[in-house]
Amino acid sequence: MCGNLRFSFFHLSLHTQNNTGSPVYIRRLFNISEKQYFQMYLLALCIDEDWDALDSLVTTKGFMGVGKKKKSPIGFERIVKTIARKTHNPPPQVSGCYSCMVCTY
């Protein structure tokens, strides 16, 4: 199941939610929790080295749409650990940004 979900993140993420290959459909079919889904999506983005998509994943709008803040259902410490693996080569500003978040939150 994890392999199927990672494959769908890479290749089928633009399909509609009702498509049997879309990540949202697989999440709904197997009752995957938000934290598990987020962790797998994070890992897929790190493998793909899509740091802009990672930033947009954790960025949410503030109160009444004013301002932006970063929020993670799994905590920023787990994000830093996933980013810092030897197989992922993040730019220094990405790893530094999330390392700073661990201290802040």
Largest sheet: 2 strands, antiparallel
Radius of gyration: 14 Å
Mean pLDDT metric: 77
- Judged by helices, strands and strand pairing, the structural class is mainly alpha
Q: What's the total number of strands?
A: 2
Helices and strands in order:
Layout: H1 2-11, H2 23-29, H3 34-48, H4 51-58, E1 59-61, E2 68-70, H5 76-83, H6 92-104
Helix pairs in contact: 1-3, 5-6
Describe what you observe in this structure.
58% of the residues lie in helices and 6% in strands. By secondary structure, it is mostly helical. The protein has a domain at 50-105. Helix 1 (2-11) crosses helix 3 (34-48) and helix 5 (76-83) runs antiparallel to helix 6. The N and C termini lie far apart (32 Å). The model has no long low-confidence stretch (mean pLDDT 77).
Task: Supply the key terms.
about 60% helix, about 100 residues, 6 helices, 2 strands, two-stranded antiparallel sheet, mainly alpha
Short description:
With 105 residues, this protein is mainly alpha-helical. The protein is 58% helix and 6% strand. Strand 1 (59-61) and strand 2 (68-70) form a beta hairpin.
